[in-house]
Amino acid sequence: MATTTKKINKITNEKDVDMFLNLKEEDITSSFIMENFAQFNGNPPKFNVYDEIVIPKGAYGLGDIKNTQSFTTTLGAWVFNKFFIEKDLIHIFGYETNAISDGYYGKMNKKLSYALLEDDITLDQLKHFLEKTQQFMPYVSILSPSVTMKLLLCDKVIAKEKERLVRLHKAEIDAGNEIVTEQIEKELLKFAQEYLEGDDSMECYDSGARMKMGNHFKNMNIMRGAAKDPDPDKGYNIMLSNYMSGITSEDYAKLCNTMAAGPYSRGKKTAIGGYWEKLFVSAFQHLRLDPPGTDCGTKDTLTIKLNNPEDYIYSYIVENGKLIELTSKNMDKYKGKTVKMRFSSLCKSKTGFCNHCAGNLFYRIGGFENIGVALALIPSILKNTSMKAFHDSTVKMVEIDIEHAFGQD
């Protein structure tokens, strides 16, 4: 998160300390949030989410799982853990001190998915967690930072640096060079982030909660940038204006043309994706799983370097002649190691894929005897990527090392 200059208060008043220490999940309601963290009529809130409190030994947890030492935490983290974690999920997360950004929230959900598949939590506990995330959504306007004047007016500061870079690369921009345009965007984004460092509004971007620097901020405050011309015989249109300063007359027609790409991706390309989904189901629906516990006995394996063991979770590793299922509990042990793995394409079963070649994922999920229908997930991902182009049409350049892209490493 961005560095801030906020004044952090220490909660020492006995009445306030007792209130927070005795807080229960059911106490955390909209009234509680409003009374303690909301700001009314320009007056400061009673407490800030970044204020700190000392939690004494044994004050957090249930049953045998309690903190064995005192610790200092923010009120925001304390309320989060009391509401989301302590009652049902303390054995999974303990006490969360990480900033709950979009990326970290995704990691938490993945951890909960593994916990459910490995019978560490119940389906009702997962549902309860997800329901509480919805309950908390209205509190965002109270707990989260908002747009500041520094953010609203930053385009005027960025404009001077942009003018310098545009003059420096005028020939490339006039030629429609999308690579140079993206390089200018990156330099200006870096300049903007340095200028806004410490501003409260940057938490909206740092958190990853909807607002993205490379899409929303860039288009609003820097430039619309390069966009593919809808005419396939043409290259890229370069737009140097942004929405805050106003789209110039020179860029207006180019901007209108960009509106064709999003609807086209959402309409035509999703239709293609939907066709491929049906094609995959038709082509592979005959593929089946053998009953749980089956083993075709093959000695054939794939040698794989597990840089991302999550990609192979619940598959079987062959180690010293024994089969070891890769789970969330042991995947850190194998991360970065080269192992031999059973693989479905090497299965010798005559009736389908045996359990040990197919892995345990679909057995743990249940209801997937006809495993072939799951292959429709591949074109489904491509279809959803096309749908997302409706909301983000920024041009991104990526250098690809062919050896790295298609090699094991």
Q: How would you summarize what this structure contains?
A:
The chain is 45% helix and 9% strand. With 409 residues, it is of the alpha+beta class. It has a 4-stranded antiparallel β-sheet. A two-stranded antiparallel ribbon has the order 1-4. A two-stranded antiparallel sheet has the order 2-3.
Topology:
Blueprint: H1 14-21, H2 30-37, E1 52-55, E2 61-62, E3 65-66, E4 71-74, H3 75-85, H4 90-93, H5 102-117, H6 123-136, H7 140-143, H8 149-152, H9 154-168, H10 170-174, H11 178-195, H12 202-206, H13 213-222, E5 225-228, E6 236-239, H14 249-258, H15 261-284, E7 302-305, E8 316-319, E9 322-325, H16 331-334, E10 338-341, H17 355-358, H18 361-365, H19 377-388, H20 402-406
Antiparallel strand pairs: 1-4, 2-3, 5-6, 7-10, 8-9, 8-10
Helix pairs in contact: 9-11, 11-13, 15-19
N-to-C SSE string, H for helix and E for strand: HHEEEEHHHHHHHHHHHEEHHEEEHEHHHH
Low-confidence stretches: none
> Major sheet: size, sense and barrel closure?
4 strands, antiparallel
Morphology: flat
Strand order of the largest sheet: 7-10-8-9
Number of H- or I-type helical stretches: 20
| Multimerization state | single chain
Write down how many β-strands occur, each being a DSSP E stretch of 2 or more residues.
10
Which structural category do the helix and sheet elements fall into? Answer: alpha+beta
Percentage of helical residues?
Answer: 40-55%
Estimate the mean pLDDT confidence.
90
Distance between the termini: 32 Å
The amount of beta strand, in percent, is: 5-15%
Radius of gyration: 27 Å
